[in-house]
């Protein structure tokens, strides 16, 4: 039998993750059920998304016909349809995560307790948004886009506080969530603009251009705030930059023209790009400086030991 001192040393040598997650050496039943639910939800959402957008040729295509929710000329916040291809990384990322979570090395990853539901929720929200668009319901499209923003912000907040352990985990869980935040922000702008235009609403009598600029400023402030955390979340930032570029060109080249809205979209995209790039440069510079300091400390340790031996002799 071990004495009290030996038992105390054994407890002190336990890794924190082993103490916090006693089922580390094998997945629990709850983990297996969660992974199965994530896989089922994701597969169902992907099949439904394809069925909603399938054309006669068999290729998927989002409805952006004149008068539709995503018509570039539907409002001053309408964007060219190519920007909605950004939903592909979201849906493909959900499919990749559904397979990745079953890898033996990931079966007991405690981070999956929240990355799994977020991944499945991203696929579900994307499919519901596609349904609202295909049904011509701008109000529902706006609501589902808002839910997508909520999921994206939750994922980014959690990833900031609980970083991924590998690049593979980042690519499977964190990057698709950032894409979700970006494309949901654009979907909210487009859906809200189409909805208010269809209602012929002019809140406070300020006019469509004033409210489009207010929406663009709010978007820039929100995404810039997100971009100033962690490593800049470039996937979300670049998605919104591309979307604002699509809005800007649509305000110049389509029937619904507006020079102030186009200028606001282009300037907003530039400001987001600068803020996200600056944050990434700042973080990378700090990491390189820590590496140099560590290498300098490693190199100076043997020299200090040799000097000590000289003094002793």
Q: Key features?
A:
313 residues, mainly alpha, disordered N terminus
Short description:
The protein has 313 residues and is mainly α.
Structure write-up:
The chain has 313 residues and is mostly helical. The protein has helices spanning 4-12, 16-20, 29-53, 87-100, 112-134, 138-161, 167-198, 208-227, 234-253, 259-312. It has ten helices and no strands. It is flat and about 70 Å long.
Number of strands: 0
Fraction of residues in helix: over 70%
Report how far the terminal alpha carbons are from each other.
47 Å
Q: How much beta, percentage-wise?
A: under 5%
How does the helix and strand content classify structurally? Answer: mainly alpha
Are there runs of 5+ residues with pLDDT below 50, and where?
Answer: 1-24
From the spread of the alpha carbons, the general shape counts as flat
Q: What is the H/E string?
A: HHHHHHHHHH
How would you summarize the topology of this molecule?
Blueprint: H1 4-12, H2 16-20, H3 29-53, H4 87-100, H5 112-134, H6 138-161, H7 167-198, H8 208-227, H9 234-253, H10 259-312
């Amino acid at each position: 039998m071990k004495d009290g001192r030996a038992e105390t040393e054994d407890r002190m040598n336990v890794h924190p993750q082993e103490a916090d997650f006693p089922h580390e050496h094998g997945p629990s039943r709850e983990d297996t059920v969660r992974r199965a639910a994530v896989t089922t939800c994701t597969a169902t959402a992907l099949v439904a998304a394809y069925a909603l957008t399938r054309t006669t040729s068999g290729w998927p295509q989002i409805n952006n016909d004149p008068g539709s929710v995503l018509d570039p000329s539907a409002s001053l916040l309408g964007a060219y349809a190519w920007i909605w291809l950004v939903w592909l990384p979201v849906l493909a990322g959900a499919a990749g995560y559904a397979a990745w979570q079953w890898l033996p090395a990931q079966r007991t990853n405690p981070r999956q307790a929240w990355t799994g539901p977020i991944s499945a929720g991203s696929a579900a929200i994307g499919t519901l948004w596609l349904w609202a668009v295909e049904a011509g319901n701008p109000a529902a499209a706006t609501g589902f886009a808002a839910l997508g923003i909520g999921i994206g912000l939750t994922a980014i907040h959690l990833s900031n506080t609980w970083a991924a352990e590998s690049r593979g985990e980042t690519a499977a869980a964190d990057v698709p969530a950032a894409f979700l935040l970006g494309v949901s922000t654009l979907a909210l702008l487009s859906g809200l603009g189409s909805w208010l235009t269809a209602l012929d609403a002019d809140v406070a009598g300020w006019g469509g251009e004033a409210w489009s600029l207010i929406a663009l400023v709010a978007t820039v402030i929100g995404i810039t705030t997100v971009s100033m955390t962690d490593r800049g979340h470039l996937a979300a930032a670049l998605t919104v930059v591309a979307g604002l570029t699509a809005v800007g060109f649509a305000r110049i080249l389509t029937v619904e023209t507006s020079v102030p809205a186009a200028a606001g979209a282009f300037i907003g995209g530039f400001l987001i790009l600068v803020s996200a790039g600056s944050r990434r440069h700042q973080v990378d510079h700090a990491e390189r400086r820590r590496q140099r300091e560590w290498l300098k400390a490693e190199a100076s340790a043997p020299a200090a030991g040799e000097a000590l031996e000289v003094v002793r002799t």
